[in-house]
Design brief:
236 residues, alpha/beta, Undecaprenyl pyrophosphate synthetase, 6-stranded parallel sheet, 7 helices, 6 strands, globular, binds 3-methylbut-3-enyl trihydrogen diphosphate, binds magnesium ion
């Protein structure tokens, strides 16, 4: 029998290179990546993973060419427009970790709608790290702790790891059991630095669009599976 990880987080890297390698644009790489993302959401639901966190856009990514940023900001609009009815049917709940306030208006509206509509769903949680930075998440948390201390809502003596974690975007979620980065780079890139203190870190060479269901499952089995045979339970 396999132990299914509760929470898997993925740094979806390598879309741009995937496009370039095929003589396509970086944005076409992002489109291919979004197709893979759909496949991994399906696979996670099938396997019984409880939470899938997907790093979609970092606060550093604003420095990219304007066209690419526009494309990446429009993707969630297109994605949720198309997928929300299915997510409702499949009981999938959407969460966002990141600075939603400073997203372009249309993107903000689309992600808020996705969170609100799926709020009461009880199946797989798909948590998008969007306009996310681990450092600013921690700094914001500290600043809110200080404010609450000033307002006598919390005493400094009361502050411990559990209380602090409640000030993070991920407050309702358990820590990831596993963080996977695709695309061959061995970096964390400002992702879930508090939350992944004890997570398994997996770096895989496949560029994200090529990181299909079978490879995803194999990586999970490598860490959490008892034997290769049980992989067949999952590969449909
Ligand atoms: C996707 O991969 C990450 C996002 C910002 C969406 P990249 O766009 O970083 O692709 P590479 O690493 O340049 O190939
Ligand atoms: C990490 O990939 C961020 C996302 C997957 C959204 P990047 O390509 O932006 O990270 P760096 O620049 O290699 O650190
Ligand atoms: Mg990259």
């Amino acid at each position: 029998m396999n132990t299914i990880p509760n929470h898997v987080a993925i740094i979806m890297d390598g879309n741009g290179r995937w496009g370039k390698l095929r003589g396509l644009s970086r944005s076409e790489g992002h489109y291919a990546g979004s197709q893979t993302m759909e496949e991994l959401i399906d696979a996670s639901a099938e396997m019984g993973i409880k939470i899938l966190t997907l790093y979609a856009f970092s606060t550093e990514n604003w420095k990219r060419p304007k066209d690419e940023v526009n494309y990446l900001m429009n993707l969630p609009i297109k994605f949720f427009n198309q997928k929300l009815p299915e997510f409702m049917k499949r009981n999938i709940k959407i969460l966002i970790s990141g600075d939603i306030e400073n997203l372009p208006k249309g993107t903000k509206k689309a992600v808020i709608k996705a969170m609100e509509e799926t709020e009461n769903n009880t199946g797989l949680i798909v948590n998008f790290a969007l306009n996310y930075s681990s450092r600013s998440e921690i700094v914001q948390a500290i600043s809110r702790v200080l404010q609450d201390a000033k307002d006598h809502k919390i005493s400094i003596e009361q502050l411990d790891e559990e209380t602090f974690a409640n000030y993070l975007y991920t407050k309702d979620l358990p820590d990831p059991d596993m963080v996977i980065r695709t695309g061959g780079e061995r970096r964390i890139s400002n992702f879930l630095m508090w939350q992944s203190s004890n997570s398994e870190l997996c770096f895989v060479d496949e560029l994200f669009p090529d990181f299909k269901k079978e490879i995803f499952i194999k990586e999970i089995v490598k860490v959490f599976g008892d034997n290769e045979v049980s992989l067949n339970e999952w590969v449909v």
